[in-house]
Specification:
It is built from 2 helices and 7 strands. The protein is of the alpha+beta class. The protein is globular and about 45 Å long.
């Protein structure tokens, strides 16, 4: 029998610019999985919808305003880490207001979709990158 792990719900965004590049953020030193690249986003608080959490996190982390209607549900990751189980819906977002800036000292990079597999990412993000690449080939 497997040990029950705490469920952590995190909402993430694949921000896509006019050139089709996707924004990735590096996890800062001192945080779990530091140095790995991930989709921007963050934890969903109790009683908060994932879309509202993502709007809040993108404002805090990147200084942009995103309308909930601009978040297109795309895929989700379900991954068991050692101390918790992560459930992460990924939304695609192509429209926002403001200039993307690293508000919390993290490094950010606009990355062509074909280059995403070369990034070191947390285990939960890998399948989402595969899904994005499949989606890009299908469109």
């Amino acid at each position: 029998m497997t040990e029950k792990l705490r469920l952590v719900l995190v909402a993430a965004a694949a921000l896509v610019d006019g050139s089709g590049r996707i924004l990735m953020a590096e996890r800062p030193a001192g945080k779990e999985l530091a140095g790995l690249w991930e989709f921007p986003g963050g934890k969903v608080e109790d009683g908060e919808r994932p879309e509202d959490a993502l709007v809040r996190e993108l404002r805090e982390e990147l200084g942009i305003e995103v309308a909930p209607a601009a978040l297109e549900p795309f895929a989700f990751a379900s991954h068991g880490y050692e101390r918790f189980h992560l459930l992460m819906p990924l939304y695609v977002c192509r429209a926002w207001e403001g200039e993307v800036k690293a508000m919390e000292g993290q490094r950010i990079a606009w990355t062509h979709i074909a280059d995403l597999p070369a990034l070191a990412v947390p285990p939960a993000d890998g399948p989402l990158i595969v899904a994005l690449m499949k989606g890009a080939r299908a469109s």
